[in-house]
Amino acid sequence: MIQIEEISKIGLGTYRMSSDNERYIEVIKYAIDSGINLIDTAVGYGYGKSELLIGQSTDPETRSSIFIVSKTGYSNKEEIAEFNQKDPNLIALDENTLFSNSPDFISFQLEKSLKRLNTNYIDCYLLHNPEYYCEKNFSTEELERIIFNSFKLLEEKINEGKLRYYGISSNDFSKIPLKAIINSIADFPNFKFLQFPYNIVERNTSFFFDNKNNITISELKNMGFYIFTNRPLNTMLNGKLLRLADTDINDVKPLEYEEELLFNELLQKIQNSLSKMGEDPKIEEYYPIQFFVENRKNMPDISTINLAINDYLYPFLSAINLVDESILNIVNNLKNYWHVFSLYDNQERLNDLKDTLGNQGIIDKNYKGNFSSYLAGLYLGNSGINSVLMGLREKKYVDSIKNLL
Question: What Pfam families does this protein's entry cite (predicted)?
């Protein structure tokens, strides 16, 4: 088994990896062979598909050389129906997503995690974003009770040999009763791990502790906590997603004319279809089309583009009987253009951020190497962080951080 002090400085985060894509199996194996022994997943990542991928990528020999972290909390209606118990701590986050950190539900999810991961133990199991209770108007006292009851259950699971350690993963530790939790750590000897977002924009070096004081990452580390961070390369800047990674797209002007012709062709087909149906052919009257007229060149990433196409464009085209092979080809080609535009826009905003941070002395303005690898090294060197979780979904991304292992 991997001991805490042996955990690699870079961990493999699998938030965007799923058993639906078999090529990720080779990426995980390559990462392990390259020296990464920390693999992070969660029940809520693809509702188990990320855990299933890890189980498919490892065997008993590999298992002893990796440290698996998973998280409990998120669920969907199908899993809740299978749980089939009343849970007073169950809350709805949206129409499809439910959430609970109750002991009975953790026990239920843990058994499913073990099966998907193809293992008889998990190295570390985290409560996933318990701050949601605060956002749903649970009192601080109620959240303390939920967390402490969960900790007691997790200690029992360690005694059963199903877990080694546990902890909390939170997007904002300032929203949970951190002081009460830390003051009770003597009662929970295997509560060892804390995970939260950290990047060059979100430099969370301390958290709200009580009415007068904050507690720093270094202080938490000195208390014996192992600190690992997520979202090292994704952040929000001025209300828009920013990817903290360079691309080689320096100019999109030659593509803008091509995209404009193709987009106008699509608009003309839409107008023709509307006229045949006896509808008003003025496309500016239809929100799904107006959305793309105004926003298609500045969407932040491919996920947003796909979401907009699937939620806005395709339903509209279907409603006006304009879904055939030629239309699908046009939309797919437009999507490729829009993706390039998003990468270019991201690089422009990233360059502005680099200039600002370089002038502030936060980063080396003269650094010319792989920026993502540079940032990961910066996080490890300056903040007291033990490990940085990165979404290394391709072998080339693994190669880019080998110098940090």
Answer: Aldo_ket_red
pLDDT for 345 beyond 80: yes
Domain ranges of the chain: 4-238+370-404, 253-351
Residues 6+ apart with CB under 8 A from 231: 197, 198, 199, 202
Q: Give me the DSSP letters along 204-259.
A: --EEE-SSS-EEEHHHHHHTT-EEEEE-SSEEEETTEEEE-S--S----HHHHHHH
pLDDT tens, position by position, 224-248: 999 999 999 999 998 899 999 999 8
Q: Which of 220, 209, 90, 109 is nearest to 154 (CA)?
A: 109
Pull the structure tokens for residue 30. 């390559």
Task: Locate the DSSP E strands across 108-216.
Answer: 122-128, 163-169, 191-197, 206-208, 214-216
Residues 6+ apart with CB under 8 A from 358: 364, 365, 366
Assigned CATH for 4-238+370-404: 3.20.20.100
Q: pLDDT band at 135, cuts 50/70/90? A: confident
Please report where in the chains the tokens 């903290």 appear, as a residue. Answer: 244
Question: Distances in Å between the alpha carbon of 300 and those of 45, 197, 234, 236, 237?
Answer: 22, 20, 11, 10, 11
Q: CA 295 to CA 394: how far, in whole Å?
A: 30
H or E segment at 24? helix 23-33
| DSSP 8-class letter at 96 | S
Element (DSSP H or E) covering residue 352: helix 325-359
pLDDT, average across residues 324-331: 95
Q: How far is CA 298 from the centre of its chain?
A: 22
Contact 397, 12 (CB under 8 A): no
| Helix pair angle (103-117, 49-57), 10° resolution | 40
